[in-house]
Amino acid sequence: MDWPHDPDGEEGSEGRRKYGHAVIAKKIDEEEDFPLDVSAFVEEYGDDPVRIDFETVVAVRDIFDDIEQDEFGDFVALHRALGETMRENGYWFYEGAETFVGDA
Which domain holds residue 40? Predict the structure, then answer.
């Protein structure tokens, strides 16, 4: 896929220091954007790249594909849903991540 910008460039992952959740979180203003309308967010940022690991880059919309909520009331709820869907879809590269997450 041709990305609108380099995922490791200044607009993306800041020289490969930011991955997954961090890239998405940078697109959100916690004070201004909540409640967050998922479809509006995906419309605006859906084609932006998110680096998952050192060799995998996916579009924001790919991560949001399996999120069923239309809106999130706060940052914590959004991050929990993102973490869950990222783990379920193989977008969670942290070694041992499953040991930190129990059945909620």
Answer: 20-92
User: pLDDT 10s per residue in the chain (104 long)?
Assistant: 565 555 556 554 555 556 677 788 888 988 899 999 999 999 999 998 888 877 788 899 999 999 999 999 999 999 899 989 988 888 876 665 555 555 54
Please check whether residue 101 lies inside any domain of the structure. no
4 domain residue, yes or no: no
Instruction: Provide the whole-model pTM.
Output: 0.74
What is the domain count for the chain?
1
Q: Per the domain annotation, does 44 fall within a domain? A: yes
- Angstrom CA distances, 75 to 2, 33, 67, 79, 80, stand at 29, 9, 15, 6, 9
Residue 42: which of 14, 70, 19, 18 has the closest Cα? 70
